[in-house]
Amino acid sequence: MVKKNIFDAPFVKEMREATANMYRLGWDERNGGNISYMLGEEEVGEYLDLSEVIRTIPTGFDVTPLIGKIFIVTGTGKYFKNVDKDPETNLGIVRIAKDGTTAELLWGYKDGGKFTSEFPAHMMSHMARLSVDPTHRIVMHSHPTYTIAMNTVCSTDEKEFTHKLWQSNTEAVVVFPDGVGVLPCMVCGTNEIGIATAEKMKHFRLVVWTNHGIYGTGRTMDEAFGLIETVEKTAQIYMLSLGHIVNVIPDQIISDLAKLWNLTPLEGILKV
Ligand code: 2HA
Ligand code: ZN
Questions:
Q1: Closest ligand to residue 31's CA
Q2: Staple partner for 129: which of 64, 136, 153, 268, CB 3.0–4.6 Å?
Q3: Is 118 considered catalytic here?
Q4: Mean pLDDT (whole number) for 72-99
Q5: Contact, 6 vs 107, CB < 8 A?
């Protein structure tokens, strides 16, 4: 069967659009940020011969639960700014090989590159999210300015952090009633931060890396993007009003907002 042009694939378009938007929003300076998107074998098979492996790349950790799964992933050291103009160099499509510790490159990383340095956090987060939501597909990492700024003035207590967001913008509890997980400042790019992130991902779709950035997850690019976007917008409101706070959204209103949308807010935050 003749294969379709990979540059027309919706998943390549989505990666180009998401990275371009994130760059222009000022969230992903230089090589900051990374995205991985789990793809179905059939959808990729329309564009690529799945028996043709360009080369293999060691993962450096065990990904056994994801054997056979295919991901489109941003490349290490690559700039979000450049993905749209050269997706084949800045993105790659990899399949987790049968040994569970190798990735098979099916397309991309044209200059000999490889996947993001945050591959452990991404793969471990996919495993954690899939265990609670079989329709999960996207892990998105970003460095949005106001979210990181909030870390310098807020405690790393995730319930306190979530409460401050919910109190600042009525959309917050509606978009993330399950709250935001927060990790303390850690060395990034390691298996350790991957394990810690995945542990949080069993309970949260959003995880903040203190003084570094945020992870958002979802079934679609829009969902993952929209979660980060709403946290960042809310963090901006919080930071702009610091030192001048007269009104915050009362717990009763936050609770009523959640009720209106049939949502259950994370427990232990609201005093109602
Ligand atoms: O890839 O965002 O966390 C650059 C980063 C590292
Ligand atoms: Zn980062």
A1: 1
A2: 136
A3: yes
A4: 98
A5: yes
Q: Which residue has the tokens 């870390």?
A: 151
Write out the residue limits of the CATH 3.40.225.10 domain(s) in the chain: 1-117, 136-261
The number of the ligand 1 atom at minimal distance from the alpha carbon of 28 is 2
Confidence tier at 253 by pLDDT (50, 70, 90): very high
Predicted local confidence at residue 243, as pLDDT: 83
Please compute the mean of the pLDDT values over residues 8-37 and round it to a whole number: 98
Establish whether residue 117 lines the binding site of ligand 1, counting it when its CB lies within 6 angstroms of any ligand atom.
yes
CA 219 to chain centre: 11
CB-based contacts of 209: which residues, under 8 Å, 6+ apart?
Answer: 183, 185, 186, 188, 193, 197, 215
pLDDT, one tens digit per residue, over 110-129 is: 999 999 999 999 999 999 99
- Which-ligand-closest: CA of 188? 1
At residue 110's C-alpha, the angle toward residues 109 and 116, to 5°, is: 15
31 CA closest ligand 1 atom index: 4
Cβ–ligand 1 contact at 174 (below 6 Å):
no
